[in-house]
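Researcher: We plan to redesign the surface later, but first we want a full-length starting point. Tokens attached.
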């Protein structure tokens, strides 16, 4: 567990996503959840030993299974954007793991199949603030990776948790994305407004402005190539030809090549079918 500021933490050692937490005088807030239930309970227990106040909340930064499957094991009320809550209505009560080869972390852990979803209890549309005896905590809607993607913003401490807005050293998840909106979100993140901020990615911990710019360049390349395929009336399978080019733009361990190829295969096919028909 890494300390960012007084009573504000992140941990990138768990399976799934980078998680965050705040332990303020009036209560404890958890940001996302480790993928596996046993890890989620361990994370929760480690924070409750130093928690204060009686309030307990968990916030999920988007709909992705890697960050939402462990939420039920934490047993806190869940905050999410209303579009994320609506997306849960499309899901069965129990996670079946139907779609394999999506390039998601949960695919490496078959034991998560059969997990019951923890569904959001509190939702919002644009922003929501908490005042728990410490600095203001803001939940802000910043779509792009998914329609309901959000950030956790602590303005007084200049800290942002941005989820999958930036995925350093790995391909982005594209199946539910809006690339143009995502690009606008990254323009904001790279602006002077956040120049002195500590920014925590949901898949890699603390990131720099250079990492944000690299993500923006990669998304611009993906969007441009897909538009080119669409203009010549290309079929969805043609999107797979651009995968080797995209992977060359990312620095990643060679052992991950097959896994990341699967992520792009699934994401590109889903995105192209949804956006270009």
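Model: Full-length starting sequence:
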């Amino acid at each position: 567990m890494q300390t960012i500021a007084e009573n504000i933490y992140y941990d990138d050692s768990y399976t799934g996503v980078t998680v965050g937490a705040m332990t303020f005088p009036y209560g404890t807030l958890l940001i996302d959840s480790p993928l596996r239930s046993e890890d989620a309970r361990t994370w929760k227990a480690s924070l409750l030993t130093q928690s204060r106040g009686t309030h307990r909340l968990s916030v999920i930064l988007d709909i992705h299974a890697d960050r939402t499957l462990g939420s039920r094991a934490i047993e806190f009320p869940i905050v999410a954007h209303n579009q994320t809550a609506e997306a849960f209505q499309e899901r069965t009560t129990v996670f079946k793991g139907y779609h394999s080869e999506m390039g998601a972390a949960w695919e490496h852990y078959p034991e998560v199949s059969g997990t019951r979803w923890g569904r959001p209890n509190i939702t919002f549309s644009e922003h929501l603030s908490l005042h728990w005896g410490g600095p203001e905590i803001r939940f802000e809607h910043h779509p792009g990776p998914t329609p309901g993607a959000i950030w956790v913003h602590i303005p007084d401490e200049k800290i942002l948790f941005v989820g999958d807005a930036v995925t350093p050293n790995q391909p982005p998840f594209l199946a539910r994305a809006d690339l143009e909106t995502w690009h606008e979100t990254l323009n904001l993140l790279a602006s002077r407004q956040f120049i002195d901020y500590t920014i925590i990615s949901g898949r890699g911990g603390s990131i720099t402005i250079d990492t944000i710019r690299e993500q923006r360049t990669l998304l611009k390349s993906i969007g441009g190539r897909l538009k080119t395929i669409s203009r010549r009336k290309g079929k969805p399978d043609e999107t797979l030809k651009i995968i080797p080019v995209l992977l060359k733009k990312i620095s990643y361990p060679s052992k991950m090549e097959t896994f990341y190829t699967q992520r792009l295969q699934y994401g590109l096919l889903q995105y192209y079918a949804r956006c270009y028909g």
